[in-house]
Amino acid sequence: MPRLKNLRLIFTISLILKGVFALFETLGGILAYFVSQQALLKFVNTITGGELVEDPQDIVANFLRQSAQHLSEPDENSTLTPTTCGGHFRLVWCGRLNG
What is the model's pTM? Predict the structure, then answer.
């Protein structure tokens, strides 16, 4: 039976981690709706600025900057529903499986 206990513990931990990720996904979707493109671009520039000074060819930093620059108003609004609904669904699903 110790093996079954370990398996149950691993399953519970994975559900908790999935729930935390779903919570962040839901909050990120809501935040994306209320944050302007300029504010997002300023935030990304602040985060990636130091990295790009060290390595101007950094793939992740350049990808984040390009993504923030090309985000349009319809894109911002269209992130709210799928992101928040998907995150909410996963939160409920994790709660039901764990409960």
Answer: 0.55
